[in-house]
Amino acid sequence: MVLTGQPLNIYDADDNTGDDYIVSDDYQGKFTTFDGKEIDLIPGDLVISDKSSVICLAGIMAGEKASVRPSTRNITIEAACFYHANIRHTSSRLGLSSFSSQLFSKERNPKLITEALAVTISLLPEFLESYELTSYSSFNRSEMTNEPFPFSLEALNARLGSSYTEEEVDEVLAAYRIEKRENGTIIPPLDRVDLKEQCDIDEEV
What we know:
The protein has 205 residues and is an alpha+beta fold. The chain has 6 helices and 11 strands. The protein is 28% helix and 17% strand. The strands form 4 sheets. The chain has a 4-stranded antiparallel β-sheet, with no helix packed on it. Strands 9-11-10 form a 3-stranded antiparallel β-sheet, with helices on one face. Strands 1-8 form a two-stranded antiparallel ribbon.
């Protein structure tokens, strides 16, 4: 998570009563976090469940049931992208915060989940004497590109009340790895989900 900005959760796979991990927002009832704190969840709180019970408060904190212990032998690594408003509202309502919830509250990039998992897998030899990868599944439907959008130097200067030259703006675009095209459009890099229209570029400049 520190290296990639992508929160991860690791489950004890043997404590899952089935092979599925189901995300839902209609659960209402008690939930015990991995550190033994009991909290009340309401519809709208995102949870991850196996076939019998809730095992994680999605994007915020793992549950007691399927948490990794010294006796754990088989694990499932989960990398997901949860809607930032859901995580922010639940975290605030419960007064429950974590490094994961802080990142999700600011919106994560679903296009980088695969890369984050690849980094995680590459680190496994640092922590495990031996291991075997047995399966992988993905439900990521995000387009793996960003959409180009129109950009105008004249519009930028008009909005900012400035007189930046094309060379000065191009220097900023290059620094942020923003591709400038000859047809008057630009494309932000894959990791910048916050750059969606002209005003976002004006702000960076």
